[in-house]
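Sequence in, structure out.
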Amino acid sequence: MNTIGIIPARFGSSRFPGKPLALIGGKPMIQRVYEQCLKSALDFVIVATDSDEIFDVVNSFGGNAVMTSADHVSGTDRCREALNSIQESFDLVINIQGDEPFINPEQINQVISILENTKAEIATLISPAMNMEEVENPNRVKAVTAMDGKALYFSRYGIPFPRNREGLKPEDYLIHLGIYGFAASALQKTKNLTSSSLEKTEGLEQLRWLQNGMSIYTSITNERADSVDTREDLRAIEKKYLL
């Protein structure tokens, strides 16, 4: 199947304005993400941005970029606009976060494999929780799946709830990672879905898809990509990977 990787990259960020252009070892972060994507099985990679500056930087290092609306509220919407602006047709679309400069290309391949080998409309990755603090952190989204990996629910709450308050270890909980893959038709389908009650309650876009009957399949990975949310994260990543 013909597969495109799209990296949504907006300039505005309340905590870190211009984050995609922040230098890591002399390279803009968006370039490092892009170069990791090129190491994967993706057939084509493109950055979808609302910033002329990001657009110009991507072109300067030989990458592909497309301008998208500044009004998008999610990376999914930005990916859809980018896909529709490209002349070539693609079967699968992988939405790669633009703030994970050293994402393992094999994780991208893992998402592609889910789409190619299951009945998934949407694919994503999950990882065993590392500790109970992570389970209890509402910013770490938890997932519950069927035995075949089909997602049953996502929550900011520490699900499943242990009724007897015993027997569950941190690694029994599954943390949802941010990468998504879509069948191209499924990505188009999401355009017509209005915000659902569960999505509004938890503040999680994927619950809109589940509540509307779309199939999301998951795969477990034991590796976490380091993400950059703050300038402190940037310095930590430089120290970890480049020093």
